[in-house]
From TrEMBL:
Protein name, as recorded: Delta(14)-sterol reductase
This protein's record includes keyword Lipid metabolism: yes
PROSITE patterns: STEROL_REDUCT_1, STEROL_REDUCT_2
Similarity field: Belongs to the ERG4/ERG24 family.
TM regions (residue ranges): 26-49, 95-121, 142-162, 174-195, 311-329, 341-360, 445-466
Keywords: Lipid biosynthesis, Lipid metabolism, Membrane, NADP, Oxidoreductase, Steroid biosynthesis, Steroid metabolism, Sterol biosynthesis, Sterol metabolism, Transmembrane, Transmembrane helix
Provenance organism: Salinomyces thailandicus
Upper taxonomic lineage: Eukaryota, Fungi, Dikarya, Ascomycota, Pezizomycotina
Gene Ontology molecular function: any one: Delta14-sterol reductase activity
Membrane topology: Multi-pass membrane protein
Length: 499
C-alpha cells in the first residue's frame, strides 16, 4: 500500500517573507549563462579528452602545434585538420552518437527505481526548518535503505556474473550517452520547476514560497538559480508528495556517483584480471562519504541548499550531472590505467581520508546535537553567544576553531580521491607482440594527467570557499551586529591559523 500524503505541519503561513529578494550571485545573468552552457561542455571535455581510445590526455594535447601540420595548410584548413585529428583521437561518435534509446530508457528506469523505493520502502517523517512565511514542511526520508537495496542488488548480480553483470556492462557501453541523457534531464527539470513556480501565491496553505535570490525578474538568471524554494509534486494514484530538491539532492545523482565507480572497478577487473589498491581506496573513500550523507539524511534540512537556495539548473545540473560524472573521474581514469600504490602510499592516503572524515563528521555531529538539544551532555559544556533572533552560535568546541571547520574535513577527504592516481597520464598504443590488441603505457607522460585527475581537489577548494562566502553573507544579513560579535570570537573561516 502506498504511504499516505503527509508533508506539512499544521502551522499556516502567518505573513509575507521576512527576507527580501537580494542581489545577483555567480556573476548575475552572464555568469548564469556561462555556467549553464559551459559546464556541459566541460563534462564532455573530461569524457573525451581523457579517454580509452588513445589515452589521457589525448596525445595531440601534449603537442598542440602538431595539430596544425602540415604547415602548408591554410588557416581554415589547419583548424579543420586539428578538429579531425581530435575527433579521431577521442573516439568522437558524432552529435547523433551522443544519445541513444538504450541510455535514455536506462536513465528513466534509474529515476523510476529511485522513486519507487522512495514510495514503497519504510520511511521516517522528519520536520524541516521553519519557513520564512511560517510553518514547516515534512520530509519522507529513506534514502539510506534505498541505497542499501540498490547496492545489495548490484552485489548479488556481481557475485553471480562478475564484471559481466549487466549494470556494469551497460554503464561502460553507454557512458557518453548516459551523460547526455542526464544533462537533458537536468535542463528539463529546471525548466519544469521554473514554469511551475509562477503558480506560487502569497499566503498559500501549501507552504510554497519563492527563494529570496530567485525572483530577480531576469528569466535566465532565475531559471538558473532557482525561483521556487521547495518545489513539490504529488505522484498520481499514489497519494505521495515528493520534494523535488531533497529527492534529487541525495538519490539519483549521489548514489549514481558510487554506481559509476563500481562500474569502472568492474571494467578494470574485466580488462586486467585484477583490481588495484588505488581504485579500491578511491571507491571506498567516496562510498563512505556518500553512505554517511544518506545515513545522516535529516542533516540536509539545515544546509544552505535546502534552507536558502531555490531549485533551478544550478542544483539540478549539480545533483544529476556534475556530481556523478565529474566526481567519478578518478575511478574512470584508474579503470584504464591500473595504478599500484603499495602499502606505504595506501596507508598514507587512508590516513588523509580518515583525518578528513573525522573532522567532517565530528564537527557536523556536534552542530546537529547542539541544534537538536543544547542540554545534551555531549554539548552542554560548549560556550555560545545568543543572537537577537534567538539563535545560538557556538564559540567553543569544533566551531570555536573555525566558523566553517567542517569544510576543512570535506576538502581533506577530496585529497584521498585524487592522490591514488599519482602523477602520470597514460597512452594507449597498438601491441607489437599481439596484433589487434592494445597496451597502456606511461612513456613520456609523467605529470600529463594531473589537471584531470586532480581537478576535483582544486575545484572543491574553490567550491567550498565560495560556499563559505555565501554562508557568511547570509549570516551577516540574518544576524547583523551579532554576527560581527561572533566573528570577533571565532576569527578563522575554514583553516585555523591560515584562513
Amino acid at each position: 500500500m502506498a504511504p499516505k500524503k503527509s508533508t506539512k505541519s499544521a502551522a499556516v503561513p502567518t505573513g509575507p517573507s521576512k527576507e527580501e529578494a537580494h542581489g545577483y550571485e555567480f556573476g548575475g545573468p552572464i555568469g548564469a549563462a556561462l555556467i549553464s552552457f559551459g559546464l556541459p561542455i566541460a563534462c564532455y571535455a573530461f569524457a573525451f579528452l581523457c579517454n580509452d581510445v588513445t589515452g589521457c590526455p589525448a596525445p595531440s594535447l601534449l603537442s598542440p602545434s602538431k595539430l596544425f601540420t602540415p604547415p602548408t595548410l591554410s588557416r581554415q584548413s589547419g583548424w579543420q585538420h586539428a578538429i579531425d585529428v581530435l575527433k579521431q583521437e577521442t573516439g568522437w561518435p558524432g552529435f547523433a552518437g551522443l544519445i541513444n534509446i538504450e541510455a535514455t530508457v536506462g536513465t528513466l528506469a534509474w529515476y523510476g527505481l529511485s522513486l519507487m523505493l522512495y514510495v514503497l520502502l519504510p520511511a521516517k517523517e522528519v520536520e524541516g526548518t521553519e519557513l520564512k512565511t511560517g510553518g514547516r514542511l515534512m520530509y519522507r526520508m529513506n534514502s539510506f535503505t534505498s541505497a542499501l537495496t540498490i547496492l545489495g542488488i548490484c552485489a548479488a548480480g556481481t557475485w553471480a556474473l562478475g564484471p559481466e553483470f549487466q549494470v556494469w556492462t551497460f554503464i561502460n557501453r553507454n557512458y557518453i550517452q548516459l551523460l547526455t541523457a542526464n544533462i537533458l534531464t537536468s535542463f528539463f527539470l529546471a525548466t519544469f520547476v521554473y514554469v511551475r513556480s509562477f503558480a506560487v501565491k502569497a499566503g498559500n496553505r501549501d507552504l510554497r514560497e519563492l527563494a529570496a535570490g530567485g525572483h530577480s525578474g531576469n528569466m535566465l538568471y532565475d531559471w538558473f538559480i532557482g525561483r521556487e524554494l521547495n518545489p513539490r509534486i504529488t505522484i498520481p494514484f499514489l497519494n505521495t508528495e515528493v520534494d523535488i530538491k531533497a529527492f534529487m539532492e541525495l538519490r539519483p545523482g549521489l548514489l549514481g556517483w558510487i554506481i559509476l565507480d563500481l562500474a569502472f572497478m568492474a571494467k578494470q577487473y574485466d580488462s586486467y584480471g585484477y583490481v588495484t589498491d588505488s581504485i579500491i581506496i578511491v571507491t571506498v573513500s567516496q562510498a563512505v562519504y556518500v553512505i554517511d550523507a544518506l545515513y545522516n539524511e535529516p542533516a540536509i534540512l539545515t544546509t544552505i541548499d535546502l534552507t536558502t537556495d531555490g531549485f533551478g539548473l544550478m542544483l539540478a545540473f549539480g545533483d544529476l550531472v556534475w556530481v556523478p560524472f565529474t566526481y567519478s573521474l578518478q575511478a574512470k581514469y584508474l579503470s584504464v590505467h591500473p595504478v599500484m600504490l603499495g602499502p606505504f602510499s595506501f596507508a598514507a592516503i587512508l590516513g588523509v581520508q580518515g583525518l578528513g572524515y573525522y573532522i567532517f563528521r565530528a564537527s557536523n555531529s556536534e552542530k546537529n546535537a547542539f541544534r537538536t538539544n543544547p542540554n545534551d551532555p555531549s554539548v552542554a559544556h560548549l560556550r555560545y553567544i545568543e543572537t537577537h533572533t534567538g539563535s545560538k552560535l557556538l564559540t567553543s568546541g569544533w566551531w570555536g576553531t573555525a566558523r566553517h571547520i567542517n569544510y576543512l574535513g570535506d576538502w581533506l577527504m577530496s585529497w584521498s580521491y585524487c592522490l591514488p592516481t599519482l602523477a602520470a597520464g597514460y597512452k594507449i598504443v597498438p601491441s607489437i607482440m599481439t596484433p589487434g590488441t592494445r597496451l597502456v603505457t606511461t612513456d613520456g607522460m609523467a605529470g600529463a594527467a594531473i589537471p584531470v585527475t586532480y581537478f576535483f581537489m582544486l575545484y572543491f577548494a574553490v567550491l567550498l570557499i565560495h560556499r563559505e562566502m555565501r554562508d557568511e553573507e547570509k549570516c551577516r544579513r540574518k544576524y547583523g551586529k551579532d554576527w560581527e560579535r561572533y566573528c570577533d570570537k571565532v576569527r578563522w573561516r575554514i583553516v585555523p591559523g591560515i584562513y
